[in-house]
Design a protein that fits this description.
By secondary structure, the chain is an alpha+beta fold. The protein has helices at residues 2-30, 32-57, 60-69, 77-83, 95-106, 110-113, 150-168, 172-177, 180-195, 197-210, 245-250, 255-273, 317-331, 335-345, 354-368, 373-377, 381-397, 407-423, 429-475, 487-519, 523-540; strands at 116-117, 123-124, 128-134, 140-146, 217-218, 231-235, 240-241, 275-277, 285-289, 302-306, 312-314. It is globular and about 90 Å long.
Length: 549
């Protein structure tokens, strides 16, 4: 079966490669206009054919399609849109095949491990499926089980994809544009992460710790007594599916409030925790109604519940710092700040003209700022085409790339945008980001103030440290080798002049810091530092000792 699967994947890939080479290398030389005109329809058809194969085969192909749907820097939108339609839902395996795997993992019969076990799966995905069960104490749980033999099937898929990647790497333009080996390695790493249910249970616990202070977010508790590498048992937190709009409205819950809480939860994960849930599709998010004591105009109280922590993303502190910078730029409509952050993060190629890109981004922000996702979708074809023509040169001259660290984040944000728009068509990501950006800016200024105070403490020590050094030189604790006996008076003169210069430089530094704080709205601190700087300068200009005249 694995060999047949390998041949199917390899055969489809080679046929697709043959068609692409025929059109792009051969026919383009003789009929360039026709090839260019029919490209969208042709590529969309190829993407649809891959989607059908992935749906039939399951396994790694579904994950690959979802993975590539986030690579908007490599693939045109008519391809990514088609790939985004791939659903990670396939028919469940028969219970007769699932039961032996669970018993082998737990090391005991199913009847001993659970009081009751529903043989009908509640959900089936490409890598596993979920069953409802009850522990011996009667507590309801959800049991996630890997599909039997899935590792062998994934190995066959990855082997075929490796062959295809090596063939594609022979094409110089593609090899210069993307490193296929690294792309495939990242994809394989993502698959391996989803297959380790022990790691997934640890992820759930980490999310629970991160949101421990937020009663509006619920994370299911894993049961380690029943969790193994291929079997995961979690607390049953099933509630209203986040895309079941009718049920949410019947429960009296505000759709806008749900969209806002989901959006704010991801802002926290990305910009504060550096650890985010990377698979926010509708089956992994639930809305749980709570009491009815909330005012009617605000809707009924609720909790937002996350499940399925197999796919998570991590953001390094350095990357998170620049992402915060970009968020501040977006919230304050500061195009230069956004471009600088994106350049530091590696989204822009080295030879990009940052000034021209900043000017173009300023024009783009002025066109789309304040528009909701629904309003953007309602643009007429003429409006969309005009915007494309205006920025076509920019897109061609400033190609961008998605660094490997942000592949999962890009996919996650794409799914998130679709969810919040479905919940609230008038949801405005720009307006919602403004208060968050202001808070980040305030925290940045607070951090900056702490850094300034530390720098001031260090500067205040300079004159005294230098004085002790010179005093030690004069008293003999620090010995100098001097070639002429009359040098003592000259050395004292030089040391006093040097010490005066240090005091004056330090005073000027106080003034520079005062001006910096003034420019950032800290007038009170600026006046205080300016006064201290003036005293520092006056002390540095004091008369010299008479014995040196």
């Amino acid at each position: 079966m694995a060999t047949l699967r390998f041949l199917r994947v390899l055969g489809f890939s080679l046929r697709l490669l043959f068609h692409i080479l025929t059109w792009e290398l051969l026919l383009r030389r003789f009929h360039p206009t026709r090839v260019r005109r029919t490209a969208p329809q042709r590529y969309r058809a190829w993407a649809a054919a891959f989607r059908e194969l992935a749906t039939a085969q399951g396994g790694a192909l579904i994950k690959l399609g979802q993975f590539l749907s986030a690579r908007v820097d490599l693939l045109p939108d008519f391809v990514t849109e088609e790939l985004a339609r791939l659903q990670d839902e396939v028919p469940a395996e028969p219970f007769e095949r699932i039961r032996p795997l669970i018993e082998a993992e737990l090391g005991q019969p199913l009847e001993s491990a659970f009081r009751a076990f529903d043989p009908v799966a509640t959900a089936g995905a490409s890598l596993g499926q979920v069953h409802r069960a009850w522990l011996s104490n009667g507590l309801p749980v959800m049991v996630k089980v890997q599909r039997p033999g899935i590792e062998r099937l994934l190995a066959a898929d990855l082997a075929a994809l490796t062959v295809v990647a090596r063939i594609l790497s022979l094409y110089p333009p593609l090899r210069r544009r993307v490193h296929l080996d690294r792309l495939l390695q990242e994809f394989a790493r993502t698959l391996a992460m989803e297959l380790d249910y022990i790691a997934e249970a640890r992820h759930a616990e980490q999310f629970a710790r991160n949101f421990a202070d937020d009663p509006g977010i619920r994370i299911p508790r894993p049961f380690w007594s029943h969790t193994r590498r291929r079997v995961l048992v979690l607390e049953d937190v099933t509630a209203i599916k986040i895309t079941d709009i009718a049920a949410i409205e019947r429960a009296g819950i505000s759709r806008t409030a749900v969209a806002r809480r989901l959006y704010q939860a991801y802002l926290r994960q990305i910009f504060y925790d550096g650890f985010f849930h990377a698979d926010p599709h509708p089956g992994n998010l639930f809305v749980e109604p709570l009491d009815r004591t909330a005012p009617s105009e605000n809707g009924r109280a609720f909790r937002l519940t996350f499940v399925d922590f197999g796919m998570v993303g991590r953001i390094s502190p350095e990357a998170r710092r620049w992402l915060r910078e970009a968020a501040i730029g977006l919230g304050t409509q500061d195009a230069r700040r956004i471009v600088g952050a994106m350049h530091a993060l590696g989204f822009l190629l080295p030879d990009v003209d940052l000034n021209m890109l900043t000017q173009a981004l300023e024009r783009l922000l002025s066109r789309v700022w304040g528009l909701s996702m629904a309003q953007l979708r309602e643009w007429s074809l003429a409006e969309a085409e005009a915007l494309f023509l205006e920025f076509r040169e920019l897109l061609l001259r400033f190609p961008f790339q998605i660094p490997q660290e942000f592949l999962l984040l890009g996919r996650t944000l794409g799914i998130l945008a679709g969810l919040v728009t479905r919940l609230d068509p008038g949801f405005n990501v720009f307006r919602e980001a403004e208060p968050f950006a202001r808070r980040l800016l305030e925290e940045e200024q607070l951090t900056l103030s702490e850094l300034v105070l530390e720098a001031l403490r260090q500067m205040m020590r300079i004159p005294w440290d230098l004085g002790r050094f010179l005093e030690g030189s004069l008293t003999g604790e620090i010995r100098w080798q001097v070639a002429f006996p009359e040098a003592r008076e000259t050395l004292m003169l030089i040391s006093m002049g040097f010490q005066r210069l240090i005091w004056q430089i330090t005073g000027l530094a106080w003034w520079i810091l005062a001006l910096f704080l003034w420019a950032n709205g800290q007038e009170r601190f600026a006046w205080i530092l300016g006064g201290i700087g003036a005293l520092w300068l006056l002390w540095g200009l004091r008369p010299w000792p008479r014995r040196l005249y």
